[in-house]
Design goal:
The protein is about 30% helix and about 30% strand. It is an alpha/beta fold. The protein folds into 2 domains: about 160 residues, Alpha-Beta Complex (Quinone Oxidoreductase, Chain A, domain 1); about 130 residues, NAD(P)-binding Rossmann-like Domain (Rossmann fold, 3-Layer(aba) Sandwich). Strands 3, 5, 6, 7, 8, 15 and 16 form a 7-stranded mixed beta sheet that branches. It is globular.
């Protein structure tokens, strides 16, 4: 099979399109014929070696931990899926990923692909949706009527978070550039702060939850917009527990893993029209390096998808 692999950590020029062996199936694995995968910041962070102390990868490595495709073969212990099923997943990041024509994924990490969208759209959803869901609901316990500030509402994670919070019945404020205000309002934002024209820390107040997707100075300023007892939850830098305690607020930090239960519920929301994917750009497997380069700029509106093969 063809795969986009790296043999050493480094720049995007390390990505090579080459022949690779088919994945070996464990009894609980499903072999997926990949139709599409997508790019997430964790991909190029791994490529650069930022996570090598946390996850010691063997080289060569196939990246790409989002997938939508068709079940090609199943392991001897698999009972929930059969060849021909359309599925999607955020697989185990410790294994080889989906920048390839085939990928092996544990049955427990799979869900049926939403039926009303394409594989390209479905491939954009797993990692960012699990991230947004766990941040807003599992960690922050966002409920109907609460006020939430979501940073970068036009980004990959933010665009899904806005829709999930809206579907929950929360009052949604988000930050975006002027050119993206109409877009994030169409996703369900009640209020949009143009961060180029206005400091969000002066425009937002009394938030029950702040979802930080940026970190740094943005995270520091976010403490000031929370009401007492509110939660700052981040996916970039771990918020200070000491500061949270001193201010009578709460902090949370997440690094997600596979979660098929969330993907199953998300698929139902997609098919009901409550969540829609936001695609920034689409590349072929041969242009995986270009796709990662775009992701690294941080300027993509929505998700960057890599199309691998026909359904």
């Amino acid at each position: 099979m063809k795969a986009a692999r790296i043999h050493a950590y480094g720049a995007s020029s390390e990505i090579k399109i080459e022949d690779a062996p088919l994945p070996t199936l464990n009894p609980d694995d499903v072999l997926i014929r990949v139709v599409a995968t997508s790019v997430n910041p964790v991909d190029w962070k791994i490529r650069k070696g930022y996570l090598k102390a946390m996850i010691p990868y063997a080289m060569p490595l196939t990246m790409g931990w989002d997938v939508s495709g068709i079940v090609e073969e199943i392991g001897s212990a698999v009972t929930m899926f059969k060849p021909g099923d359309a599925v999607y997943s955020r697989p185990d990041i410790a294994r080889n990923g989906a920048y390839a024509e085939f990928v092996a994924v544990r049955e427990s990490e799979l869900a049926a692909k939403p039926s009303t969208i394409s594989h390209v759209e479905a491939a954009s959803l797993p990692l960012v949706s699990i991230t947004a869901w766990e941040a807003l609901f599992t960690t922050a316990n966002l409920t109907k009527g609460q006020r939430v500030l979501i940073h970068a509402g036009a980004g990959g994670v933010g665009s899904i978070a806005v829709q999930l919070a809206r579907a929950k019945g929360a009052h949604v404020t988000t930050t975006a550039s002027a050119g993206k205000i109409a877009l994030v309002k169409s996703l369900g934002a009640d209020e949009v702060i143009d961060y180029h024209a206005q400091d969000f820390s002066n425009a937002a107040k009394d938030m029950d939850v702040v979802f930080d997707t940026i970190g740094g100075a943005v995270q520091e300023k976010s403490w000031g917009v929370l009401k007492p007892g509110g939660m700052l939850v981040s996916i970039t830098d771990k918020p200070s527990e000491d500061r949270a305690k001193a201010e009578g607020k709460r902090s949370g930090f997440i690094f997600i893993g596979p979660n098929a239960a969330i993907l199953k519920d998300l698929g139902q929301m997609v098919d009901l029209g409550q969540v829609r994917p936001l695609i920034a750009a689409e590349y072929g497997l041969n242009d995986t390096a270009k796709a990662q380069d775009l992701s690294e700029t941080g300027r993509a509106t929505g998700k960057i998808v890599i199309y691998v093969g026909h359904p």
